[in-house]
Amino acid sequence: MAEFKFTDAGKNNTQKSGGSGAKTGSIIFAVVIIVIVLAVLFNCFTIVQEGFIGVKYQFGKIVEDDLSAGLNFRIPFVEEIQEVDIRDQIYSVTADAYTSDTQSVNDLQLKLNYRYSSSMLSSIIRETGINNVENKLLVPNVAKIAKDAIGKVKAEDLVQSRSQVQNSIQEELTSVLSPYGIIVTAFAIENLNFDPAFEASIQEKVIAAQDALKMENKTKEKEEEAKQIVIAAQADADSQVAIAKAEAEAISLIEEQLSNSPNYIEYYTIQKWNGILPQVIGGDGINPFVSITGGSGSTQTSAPRTSTVPTPVTTADTAE
Predict the structure, then answer these.
(1) How far is CA 21 from the centre of its chain?
(2) What pLDDT is recorded for position 177?
(3) The dihedral of CA 199, 201, 202, 208: what is its sign?
């Protein structure tokens, strides 16, 4: 009878297989735990981009509304951080309006620049909602306020002083929107489309005003030229008067000198004499020289005086 012998080989194989499986399961479990831990760690932080502000919610309730740009911590599955754009926003609308003199302004394009107030961000979210700001606050106010402001001015004034009208609209919008946490940074009326006939009349008036200004400038130029001529003439007259006064004073001084010194003329003649005797001497015996008596009583010969030559004797006179 054959004998069968049973060994522990199968049992050993089973034990070995079970041991390797347990080891593999442990590794998988550890990996899963690590992944979960890493996921939790990564979910603990949220990055807020530049130009945005972070708002932290805890089970749907705002707990912080001033998280700055960068890495911010939150409790996973409990807290959530949402970004809100606090940069300038632009709202545009097209509308029709009428001026105070019933001129129609068609396709009026209005542009509003605004941003959210950081200090009132929670109030904006609770009462209005970031996504509802345009529909709830801007749509019913921007066009209405602009139309009311334009309706208070004449069409011509609106063309010539658009910036003033824009400023008044911006001030009114600021007053209305600031209580809701909306900061108005700029407002503009980008185009004004009037009736073609009215625009033509405005253009003609502007051209006429420019022509009048040119004529006024020319008139002022002519007046200035006339003033300059008068000033030059007055300056010349003053110069002539000054010269005449100087000459009169000089003559007065000379006369005074002559009255005090009668011999001044004789002295002046000697000073101007060139040393040449006169070539014509009169026959009346006039001495061509002037005698000047010095202080010691001596007589000196001075420059010749003007004389005449005696009339020559002719043959006819001799015969007589």
Answers:
(1) 83
(2) 96
(3) positive
Question: Alpha helix locations (H) across the chain?
Answer: 9-43, 121-123, 133, 142-150, 155-160, 162-177, 196-260, 264-272, 315-319
- The two most distant CA atoms of the chain are separated, in Å, by 228
The tokens describing 130, both together, are 């970031």
Which H or E element spans position 64?
A: strand 61-67
Task: Provide the β-strand partners of residue 71.
Answer: 47
The residue from 86, 115, 141 where one domain ends is: 86
Same domain, 79 and 111: no
Looking at the structure, do residues 147 and 215 belong to the same domain, yes or no? no
**pTM, rounded to two decimals:** 0.53
Domain-located, residue 290 = no
**127, part of any domain:** yes
Is 2 part of any domain? no
- CATH code for the domain in which residue 160 is found: 3.30.479.30
Residue 223, Cβ neighbours under 10 Å: how many? 10
φ/ψ (deg, to 5) at 208: -65, -40
Domain assignment present for 133: yes
Q: What is the pLDDT of residue 301?
A: 47
Rounded Cα distance, 152 and 165, in Å? 10
Q: Is 58 helix (H, G, I), strand (E, B) or coil?
A: strand
3-state secondary structure of 60: coil
**pLDDT by residue (tens digit) across 115-156?**
999 889 999 999 999 999 999 999 999 999 999 999 999 888
Closest to 150 (Cα-Cα) out of 207, 105, 206, 197: 105
Tell me the residue length of the chain. Answer: 320
List, in sequence order, every residue forming a beta bridge with 184; answer none if it has no partner: 114
> Which DSSP string corresponds to 239-256?
HHHHHHHHHHHHHHHHHH
What is the DSSP secondary structure assignment for residue 100, as one 8-state letter? T
- Cα–Cα dist 207/199, whole Å: 12
Lookup result for tokens 């402001």 = 149
3-class DSSP assignment, residue 4: coil
Number of domains, the chain: 3
